[in-house]
Design goal:
Layout lengths: L1 H10 L5 H11 L4 H12 L6 H9 L6 H11 L3 H15 L6 H12 E4 L21 E4 L2
Antiparallel strand pairs: 1-2
Length: 142
């Protein structure tokens, strides 16, 4: 518990990346497009756009380590602070995102269906050996 309190105290000084980027960008007098252009220029990588900067600011995406280093340089914010801001944002949204085990479990459930035994009309229902006619049969799809 003490560790959680210490971590919460450390996070008070650093806003999430969704707030850090627009604050630092505005303090530099840059628009989203100008920041994107600056990132492209200093990184020599033209894959970031104004739309991507907007996604970072709205929390639709969190910039990866590559772009966090360039954001740090472009906005004159310490790299450790940008990384911490990304971690804070990730921690804030992680309860909403399903863990990989949950996704795996859901996909397994979709492949395994519980179905009632159905017979064509004018035929007696058949049941697997050892099952009564009112039990469900598990069908494993591959």
């Amino acid at each position: 518990m003490l560790k959680a309190v210490r971590q919460a105290h450390e996070h008070q000084d650093t806003p999430p990346i969704t707030a850090l980027i627009p604050q630092a960008r505005r303090s530099q007098g840059l628009t989203q497009r100008e920041l994107a252009d600056l990132l492209c220029e200093i990184s020599q990588n033209d894959s970031v756009t104004r739309e991507e900067v907007s996604r970072w600011e709205r929390g639709k995406r969190i910039p990866g380590p590559y772009w966090r280093a360039w954001i740090s340089a472009a906005l004159d914010v310490p790299h450790a602070e940008v990384d911490k801001a990304a971690m804070i944002e990730r921690d804030a949204i992680s309860p909403v995102l399903p863990c990989p085990q949950a996704r795996s479990l859901r996909s397994r459930r979709s492949r395994t269906a519980s179905v009632d035994t159905v017979s064509p009309p004018n035929q007696r229902p058949s049941t697997p050996a050892g099952a009564s006619s009112d039990q469900k049969v598990i069908v494993q799809r591959s």
